[in-house]
Amino acid sequence: MAQSRAEELIARARQAAASAYARYSHFRVGAALRCGDGSIMTGFNIENRSFGLTVCAERTALFGALAAGKSDFKEIAVVGLDSEVPLPPCGACRQVLTEFMAPDTPVHFSGKDGKIVTVRLGQLLPNDSLHDFEPRS
């Protein structure tokens, strides 16, 4: 049976999560971002003892893609290897993702049990001022 696009991204995110630098929380997260040219960029969470300086997997994948000259993003997957439930992007990541992705971009997420949930980015951050509202004159 052929692997679906979502399953492929989840598998890549799961692989990335295995490399996470989660020295303090031991909560490993990986992300895989499919770019418009078909390439997949991955990232993982990188913690710091000053927890506010920690960077999430979604942002490391996105920032790496931007640094590599990518600007067209088709879908993203997030996996929490140590999460009991499917792990969606956090609020900060939702805000950053909406800066670079359309509201209809698929977001796939999973936890350690492998169950995949898929929603549209606009469902995770409704009423996004960048996309949903016209400026007042």
What would you say this structure looks like, in words?
The chain is of the alpha+beta class and 137 residues long. The protein has one domain (5-124): Cytidine Deaminase, domain 2. The protein is 28% helix and 22% strand. The protein has 4 helices and 5 strands. The chain has helices at 5-17, 57-67, 91-100, 121-124; strands at residues 29-35, 40-44, 73-80, 106-110, 116-120. A 5-stranded mixed beta sheet has the order 2-1-3-4-5. The radius of gyration is 15 Å and the shape is globular. It starts with a helix and ends in a 13-residue tail after the last helix. The mean pLDDT is 93.
Write the layout of secondary structure elements.
Elements: H1 5-17, E1 29-35, E2 40-44, H2 57-67, E3 73-80, H3 91-100, E4 106-110, E5 116-120, H4 121-124
Parallel strand pairs: 3-4
Antiparallel strand pairs: 1-2, 1-3, 4-5
Question: What's this model, at a glance?
Answer:
This protein has 137 residues and is α+β, with helices and mostly antiparallel strands. It has helices at 5-17, 57-67, 91-100, 121-124; strands at residues 29-35, 40-44, 73-80, 106-110, 116-120.
Features of the shown structure:
5-stranded mixed β-sheet, alpha+beta, 28% helix, 137 residues, globular
